[in-house]
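[job 0412] stage=fold_complex status=start
inputs:
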Amino acid sequence: MKEFVVTPWEVKGKVDYEKLVRNFGIELLDERILAQLKKHTGELHYFLERKIFFAHKYFDLILKEFEKGNKFYLYTGRAPAGPVHLGHLVPWIFAKWLQDKFNSILIFQIPDEEKFFFKDDLSLEDTKKWAYENILDIIAIGFDPKKTKIFLDTEYAGHLYKYACMVAKKVTLSTTKALFGFKDSNNLGEIFYTCMQSVPAFLPTIWEKKPTNCLIPCAVDQDVHFRLTRDIAPKLGFPKPATILCKFLPSLTQGGKMSTSVENTAIFTTDTPEKVRTKIIKYAFSGGRKTVKEHRKKGGIPEIDVSYQYLTFFLEDTKKLKQIYEDYKSGKMLTGELKEITIEVLNKFLQEHQKRRERAKEKIEEFMLRD
Amino acid sequence: MKEFVVTPWEVKGKVDYEKLVRNFGIELLDERILAQLKKHTGELHYFLERKIFFAHKYFDLILKEFEKGNKFYLYTGRAPAGPVHLGHLVPWIFAKWLQDKFNSILIFQIPDEEKFFFKDDLSLEDTKKWAYENILDIIAIGFDPKKTKIFLDTEYAGHLYKYACMVAKKVTLSTTKALFGFKDSNNLGEIFYTCMQSVPAFLPTIWEKKPTNCLIPCAVDQDVHFRLTRDIAPKLGFPKPATILCKFLPSLTQGGKMSTSVENTAIFTTDTPEKVRTKIIKYAFSGGRKTVKEHRKKGGIPEIDVSYQYLTFFLEDTKKLKQIYEDYKSGKMLTGELKEITIEVLNKFLQEHQKRRERAKEKIEEFMLRD
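[job 0412] stage=fold_complex status=done
writing structure:
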């Protein structure tokens, strides 16, 4: 068994998601809960069918409460430190689906201080610049401006800081060291930051002036923050937030997750079709065999093929995906062909995204909360 | 040698101020610097003559810069958790004197989260209530509303948080543990708070958009926060703040400092004349002898007599104070007489203060900064 690491700041090695479920104290999204969800949504997003969103905590309670007439808010976020890549979009696409299906208000936190604390060479001006770049990608997802509130921590601190203090009083240094692995060499910002990430989970109750549920769609590495939030919530009189958690979009070169900080491992939302082509052709780790002859005979391994993984995230047509899987596995489809399909799917997706991203420039103010 | 403790949260035992000067790396206010100050002020406040304000860091540089035409801001604060007592007023009275003499803008921070972090039974509603009570005492000191900016941390966090983050990034947990004695059992608020206390020292430069000096008149226990601020300042491109530091007004029962949290050790600004009388008569630790006969023979000990100490803080007339010292020391003046004088001086002071405090209720908005 290879070792792997999953923290909000680092994903390393081949992630064993079953082990994560055990270690994080979360639950798998099983058939029972998916059936319960489908009662309300009529259909299941392919992220659910394909187990891309694979785990949760208290999502069953959110649905139970919803059935009693108690609505819930959605909350997700983006720590800006560079351009948005395809991996970032996954929870946002799913959040939009949930917003549409449940008519939910979405709180979108942009913690522009988080990466600033963790990266020496990053200034708050840098992260703010990236925040407003990233907001274009967020708006491009198609969220309802009347039901979506986006804010930067440093611009909305007048509202957030007070509640972060309430969280901070309830968390000891020991707890945060145990949860996040902090050492005495960490800075005070790194240590305090989790308090700010807890606050939006309480805003539904604060805004509605009555206990109001919050569901957080995010990648599984973020769950640790919300484990802390769930510990604190009852002490402050807030409902515990629920999470619904997705796997990581693999990096081009496989292993860990797609990451902005490692060159040539990510496809950015602003990449040109040519750039996407080059990245897939040159870098996308292949599950194919060494020679065409061997490939035809033994077949490819879609499970480790990055192009194929990308199709599971971005090719909506499940029948077509199945056909590709079988053709690649049988050896009928070569890696070159699989890559061409992936390039086409991603570029089609990005072409639409980039159009909406361009139009988003006029819409920013409709979405923003500021002090 | 008795042990003593001086931290921002605890003052215990008989304070050895000379030892503090060595331990804190601060300087005594010597004749040279007082003469330099007098060149600009024409006179010395009796707090300086009597060594109540006794130490400083970089005050000499502040004066040097002032002589070059570079003005400075003043900054002080009050962490609200209860009523204001006479001890709290000492740095404020001195800050007003400095404001008048140097025509300085005063930044007055009310960190309404600080005591909240340190006291289990205190809510942010409690500290906010006390904040606005305490602001009446601050305004009653007579600060110029055009040159005095008061804010609560939770109400002004929209402006402060960003800069607190810049400080936080530069301070490791190790540093803050060494400076403040924090343990892993401390909460995240206690640990982060010092970052918020640093920020007002940088506001002069931020507001003026050029390097602008800051002088902090405060009690000596606060210097540790500003030692941290001075370490950080150059890394963020801000001038190091200077401090000018006072001794503690003793508690009625002597030892440590006047404290709100210990019953019958403090005289509050809202105490009635009768209450002041009772407290001084019943509780003020006396430097007198056991019998009148012995007192007449050996004389009293003004150095340990709390009533006499209060006169050094609140009786402006230095000639009269000297006479009282001599009469008490020689045995000519009995403790009862000394206490009567003290009661009269304090009640006269409080009568005026309470009138101004009442009028302050109409003036709050002239002073406040909010997001």
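[job 0412] summary: The mean pLDDT of chain B is 96.
[job 0412] exit 0
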